[in-house]
Amino acid sequence: MDHFIYRGGQLWAEDVPVAEIAEQVGTPFYLYSTATLVRHFRLFDEALAWGPHLVCYAMKAASNQAILKTLAEEGAGMDVVSGGEYARARAAGVPGERIVFSGVGKTEGEIRAALDGGIRQFNVESEPEMRAISRIATALGVEAPIALRVNPDVDAKTHAKIATGKSENKFGIPIAKARAAYAEAASLPGLKVVGIDVHIGSQLTQLEPFEQAYRKVAELTEVLRADGHEITRLDLGGGLGIPYTRSNEAPPLPTDYGAMVQRTVGHLGCEIEIEPGRLIVGNAGILVSRAIYVKEGEGRNFLILDAAMNDLLRPAMYEAHHDIVPLIEAAPGVEMAPFDVVGPVCESGDTFAKGRDLPPVKAGDLVAFRSAGAYGAVMASEYNSRPLVPEVLVRADQFSVIRARPTFDEMINRDTIPAWL
Ligand code: LLP
């Protein structure tokens, strides 16, 4: 459920007509709804209310300071994967004890910064990384809380580029090697083992792969406890999918997910952490764009928008589907026609949809890409020297630009001409 709905024939974001924002901000831009963000965070929080838990928002999905602050004020923790994300989380007011640090290639500088600034736990993805954290923590005279990310070799049944829990993926320590890795962790100075971490992929539309992975984690918890390790936390990752189309079968709800977590690992008495990104922000954001031209091709019509693959990469990168809707609601019974929806970038891959049935659209009309809040703005670039797409946040009847569109001068002045030119 989201708060982008038609009322009186036009699309609203909470209590603001989206077209009004487009007039003031210009297109394209991302638009987020505070009510939807907060609602989705609370759904997860309530789904795990049966025991001690922390919902650590995976901020890679959308990392604007205003989004982070909104969630931090709800009590969210953060899952970060780089020094930049750690700094962003801290700048948004998230205390170190609510930040978990994931990622396969944490550098010495990143590890040091997190230990200096405070960290809930590192999710360690390899033995060499574990040794590096031990070395750095020992040098700083502190103890680093760690969980080892295990790779459970489970098929997440999602797009290959976003599956992470199979043995051929680069993530985590093979679960068969976990006992040996935990034994080494216990022997190293500067480390405090606090739990186990697992994350098997993104946009999962069934509970069954999660359930398989979590059962393996439950078994491993018992084995590690028998080996003498203190396992008090389980970080179960993110990955619960969202409905990208109205026609699709809806993925499981956070409540079903929470009940499954309780069923699979609830008996262990551990504190539960989860790292959802997409489900919190995906349907809390849209990308608003204006049609520049409608061009008649051979056997097809192109709808050429002012948004492009540099603004929303997902269709080009994962063949992802995003519903595209007009800001002025189509009259009931109006005839739909197929369009190839494209952007102005000089690549054929700059195609959002092929043969998409849309109500009549003409140059100048405004459209919205739904479900664009997650992995939208954060994956945008300035390719073709198109200014980085701005972001706007709505709360009830107010809106605010939370990242402004850079001017051409700002873009150009980021470059430096060497003295010899
Ligand atoms: N935790 C870890 C360790 C992750 O690697 C990820 C996502 C998450 C949590 C959050 O997963 P979520 O709840 O958002 O599914 N750019 C791709 C998605 C990449 C996901 C990467 N890892 C896309 O646009 O579909």
Notes on the protein architecture:
- There is one protein chain.
- This protein folds into two domains: 4-31 and 282-412, Beta Barrel (Lyase, Ornithine Decarboxylase, Chain A, domain 1); 34-280, Alanine racemase (TIM Barrel), CATH 3.20.20.
- Strands 4, 14, 15, 16, 17, 18, 19, 20 and 21 form a nine-stranded mixed beta sheet that branches. An eight-stranded parallel β-barrel has the order 5-6-7-8-9-11-12-13, surrounded by five helices.
- The model has no long low-confidence stretch (mean pLDDT 96).
- Helices cover 28% and strands 25% of the residues.
- The N and C termini lie far apart (55 Å).
- Strand 1 (4-7) and strand 2 form a beta hairpin.
- The protein is an alpha/beta fold and 421 residues long.
- The longest helix has 19 residues, at 208-226.
- The chain has helices at 18-25, 34-47, 65-73, 83-91, 108-117, 127-140, 178-187, 208-226, 254-265, 278-281, 314-318, 408-412, and strands spanning 4-7, 10-13, 16-17, 29-33, 53-58, 77-80, 99-101, 121-124, 144-151, 173-174, 191-197, 233-235, 271-274, 285-296, 301-305, 324-326, 337-342, 351-358, 366-369, 391-395, 398-403.
- Ligand LLP binds next to helix 10 and helix 11.
Features:
21 strands; 421 residues; 12 helices; 28% helix; 2 domains; TIM Barrel; alpha/beta; binds ligand LLP
